[in-house]
Design goal:
Layout: H1 13-21, E1 25-30, H2 67-79, E2 86-91, H3 101-111, E3 118-125, H4 132-141, E4 147-154, H5 158-164, H6 170-182, E5 186-193, H7 200-211, E6 217-222, E7 225-226, H8 230-237, H9 245-258, E8 264-267, E9 277-279, H10 286-299
Parallel strand pairs: 1-2, 2-3, 3-4, 4-5, 5-6, 6-8
Antiparallel strand pairs: 7-9
Helix pairs in contact: 7-9, 9-10
Length: about 300
């Protein structure tokens, strides 16, 4: 496979970006001051049980700053080493299509105009919070600049969905993917390994399902149990089993082996907020996790898609 390098045996985002844009490309996480229907009462006020009090996007920009200031702060750091870098404007925090279309247009078009070196717009959202009207607009915007939509699936299993209070069914997710792809918008899917009471086979089944969909990217990471979350309270009062590092490495290695080889791997390990993390503590060692996965892929002589069955 062309994406196999001395460091990786899977289709990394870095490889994809360099191949597509011919330069080093960085994501700049922006905070558009969005909320979430799973928190504001539209669906629930509790949110997904693993989310912190402020919701998703712990590493997005400061909401008190303008988009320009948020962008410049990151660019100034990157520019010290990569003077000719390119950028992706990334709306990360909470549900970034959950607003009237007029507001979304203003934010998105401001974001792609922040710098002449912005080459794509990435938007994290929920599949139940992206209307046909918004998708149609994003389809038009996608003709000017690549638009990526990140959808948080986490799992295909309804029992787990009910437990984590995700708030939408698999059918809703499936429909959103299909509607986005009708407009040629790239879709990136978030998956969490180690959700309470899920088996290895259940986590592999989530990947097998995604192989059947027209998606372009995936983010895989371990469940992080954080303080001041509903899941954290459950764990502290009645601890349940969490994945060990070895178990996580084994599961991701097998997931990559069965994953379609054309799907770009945007993440195989997340960034756990160290000051909030209850478990697993190995989640603080992102690069150790990545290195262990790479070593295990080589040890088994695996590469992404080597066990894929169409």
């Amino acid at each position: 496979m062309e994406f196999i390098t001395s460091q990786h045996r899977y289709y990394t985002l870095n490889y994809y970006l360099k191949k597509r844009f011919k330069k080093k490309v960085f994501k700049v996480a922006l905070n558009g001051n969005f909320t979430c229907p799973n928190r504001d009462g539209s669906i629930s006020t509790k949110g997904c049980i693993f989310c912190s009090e402020k919701g998703s996007g712990d590493f997005a920009g400061n909401v008190e700053d303008s988009l320009q200031d948020q962008f410049n702060m990151v660019k100034n750091i990157i520019h010290q080493k990569w003077k000719d870098a390119l950028y992706i404007a990334y709306f990360q925090a909470n549900t970034n299509t959950y607003a009237p279309l007029s507001r979304l247009k203003k934010l998105y078009e401001e974001a792609i105009s922040l710098d002449e070196n912005i080459v794509a717009l990435s938007i994290a959202t929920r599949p139940d919070s992206i209307s046909d009207e918004v998708i149609e607009y994003l389809g038009e915007l996608n003709k000017k600049i690549p638009v990526w939509i990140e959808l948080g699936l986490q799992t295909i299993h309804q029992k787990t969905d009910n437990f984590i209070n995700r708030g939408y069914t698999l059918d809703v997710f499936h429909k959103a993917v299909n509607n986005l792809r009708k407009h040629n918008i790239e879709v990136i899917v978030h998956v969490i390994n180690g959700l309470p009471y899920e088996t290895k086979e259940m986590m592999l089944d989530t990947i097998k399902y995604l192989n059947t969909l027209d998606i372009q990217g995936i983010k895989i990471h371990s469940l992080y149990i954080l303080e001041n979350t509903i899941l954290g309270q459950i764990y502290q009062s009645n601890p349940f089993k969490v994945l060990s590092l070895d178990e996580y490495v084994d599961i991701v290695t097998e997931q990559l082996a069965i994953l379609r080889p054309d799907i770009v791997i945007h993440r195989i390990s997340g960034d756990a907020p160290k000051d909030q993390l209850l478990a697993p503590l190995w989640g603080m060692k992102k690069f150790v996790v990545m290195n262990e996965i790479n070593k295990e892929m080589k040890r088994r002589d695996y590469f992404q898609g080597c066990k894929y069955k169409s």
